[in-house]
Amino acid sequence: MPRSLAFYRPDEYPADSNVGYLMKRIVNSLGHNIDALLEP
Asked: Is the pTM of this model over 0.85?
């Protein structure tokens, strides 16, 4: 069986550089800012 490559090490993978995490933060921030602008 071929040996797998060690390209992912959980202890060296910071959560704040994850693309999905960053996109979620951007979308939440935009939603919050738009809601604040649209309040009467």
From this structure: no
